[in-house]
Structures are given as structure tokens and as C-alpha cells.
Amino acid sequence: MDSGPARDEAMIDSRLLDASETGATTLSSSLVARLRAAIMRGDLMPGTKLVLDRMRAAYGVSLSPLREALCRLESEGLVAIEDQRGYRVAPVSLDNLAEVIRLRVEFECLAAKEAILHGDTAWEGRILSTLHQLNRCKRGVRSAEEQEQWEVAHRAFHAELIAAARMPLLGQFCQTLHDQSDRYRRIFLKSHEPDRNVPAEHEAIAEAMIARRAGDATRLLRDHIERTGRNIQKALRAG
């Protein structure tokens, strides 16, 4: 008996199912990115209660992808689940910031050492390229748009420093910690001018990485992260 039509129908059903799953995954990932950006920018401030019905209407999605997105952000430490009853933007605290700083120093310095071991000349060129883009951003007081341009360039530079580490899990941990650190820094910059020392620190770190001076590179990176953290801690203590 000819099974061609049945086989063709099964193949069509399979493709439709795959397309449906792909669409759901794309929607969820897009929603995660939008919510993460809103939290990072401060559109959703620390401690804000996330009302699902309002968010569903605002983002034009159903509850299922919204809950999935919030759970993914909870795993990144940007959203807190409250006794299974609801969601809230993760609060900020001195203790949490101190932990973020300590872990970021340890993980990024390890990744920097690995990147120096494995990086090639193309990687060196990408470091210089991202540094150039970062240095082209406006210094001093910035508008919201200018600050967002700086944030994008800053993230790209720090990501490229450790991109050659060949340790994907470590890279994911560094990215999550960088998000946590960025959130604190953005809150700090809402009421403080950007630090004048930062551009020089970036250039010194890049130069040491490219020159394969692992000791200097990790020391400079550690000082850079810790000094920024101390400035934010001081501001938090001051209220």
C-alpha cells in the first residue's frame, strides 16, 4: 500500500510543530532581552512589583512566555520570585554588591588569563576595535541616548577582553555578573558624573592584554572593577 500521502502529512505536521516551537523560543528570548534592558536602564526599578496582567498587556504576550522570561531573569539574579506568589525586580543592597564585585573579579581575571593564553591576532584586533568604539562615545555628562550608546560599547569591550578564553560556562557566568554590576553602575550614574579615570583604565587593560602581560592585565582589571564598586558602595551608603 502506498504510504506516501500519510508520510507527507506527517512531515508537514512535524515541520509545523518545529516552526511553532521555534517561534515560541524566539518570542521568549526576545521578551527576556526586552525585560532585561528595561531593568538595566532603570525603567523597572529595583524592588518594583511585576504585575503579570499589566505586563502581558504592555508587551503584547500571553502569560506562558512571560512567566518563562521572568524565570530566566530570576536565574540571572535580576528578578526575584516571592513565595511562588509573584515577581519583583531584584532589590539592590550593599551585601549583594560586595558579592557581585568579588565574584566578578575572580571570574573575569580567570577568563582574562585564559584569553591571553589562547587569543590570536584577530582577537587582539577586536579588542582594539571595541576600545576605539568605546573611546568615540561622549565623555562626561551624557543624555539617556548617549549613555545607552556608551553602555553598548562598554559591554562589547569587556566581553571581547575574555572572548578568547575558550570556556563557555565561565563566559556565561561573567556575562551574568557583568549584568549585575552594570545595573548598580547605571543607578549610580543617574545621580553622579562618569568617572574620569575609566577611559585610561580601559586603555591600560587593553594594552596589557594584547602584550600578554597576564599579571599586569589581571591586576589592572581587578583594580578597575573594585574601584568602580567602591564608588557605588559609597553612594549607596549615602542613600
Please give a structural write-up.
GO terms for molecular function: DNA binding; DNA-binding transcription factor activity. Keywords: DNA-binding, Transcription, Transcription regulation. This is GntR family transcriptional regulator. InterPro entries: GntR_C, TF_FadR/GntR_C, Tscrpt_reg_HTH_GntR, WH-like_DNA-bd_sf, WH_DNA-bd_sf. This protein is 74% helix and 4% strand. It is globular and about 55 Å long. α8 runs antiparallel to α9. The mean pLDDT is 89. It has a three-stranded antiparallel β-sheet. 23% of the residues are buried. The protein has two domains: 86 residues, Winged helix-like DNA-binding domain superfamily/Winged helix DNA-binding domain (Arc Repressor Mutant, subunit A, Orthogonal Bundle), CATH 1.10.10; 144 residues, GntR ligand-binding domain-like (Four Helix Bundle (Hemerythrin (Met), subunit A), Up-down Bundle), CATH 1.20.120.530. β2 and β3 form a beta hairpin. The longest helix has 38 residues. With 239 residues, it is mostly helical.
Give the helices and strands, then pairings.
Layout lengths: L3 H38 L7 E2 L1 H8 L3 H13 L3 E4 L3 E4 L4 H25 L2 H16 L7 H18 L6 H22 L8 H13 L3 H24 L2
Antiparallel strand pairs: 1-3, 2-3
Helix pairs in contact: 1-3, 4-7, 4-9, 5-6, 5-8, 7-9, 8-9
